[in-house]
From TrEMBL:
Transmembrane parts of this sequence: none
Record-annotated Centromere protein Cenp-F N-terminal domain positions: 1-55
GO biological process: metaphase chromosome alignment; mitotic cell cycle; regulation of G2/M transition of mitotic cell cycle
Organism of this sequence: Oryzias melastigma
Protein name from the UniProt record: Centromere protein Cenp-F N-terminal domain-containing protein
Gene Ontology cellular component terms for the protein in this record: chromosome, centromeric region; nucleus; spindle pole
GO molecular function (one): microtubule binding
Length: 85
């Protein structure tokens, strides 16, 4: 705590000073928790970005084959519905 921050507490009762100290400790704890949660969020975001890249690579690799199979199925003279009978 700097001297400027300590100045405003001069003359406060012991009970009030204790409450100020508790609030400062609470503030510091919340600040640390926030920093930790932000780090977790950043890690999750990085992981998500990696997964997105994997999905795009998978899609780019298999999309042409999927389209080819779909075209073959749609153009096939034997329809799937005929197998159900």
């Amino acid at each position: 705590m700097s001297w400027a921050e300590e100045d405003w507490t001069v003359g406060l009762s012991g009970r009030v000073l204790q409450k100020v100290k508790e609030l400062q400790v609470h503030k510091e704890r919340l600040f640390r928790e926030n920093k930790q949660k932000q780090l977790q969020l950043d890690n999750i975001h990085a992981s998500l970005e990696k997964q997105i890249v994997k999905v795009h690579l998978f899609y780019a690799r298999f999309y042409p084959k999927i389209c080819e199979i779909k075209w073959e199925i749609e153009c096939s003279p034997v329809k799937i519905s005929s197998f159900k009978k």
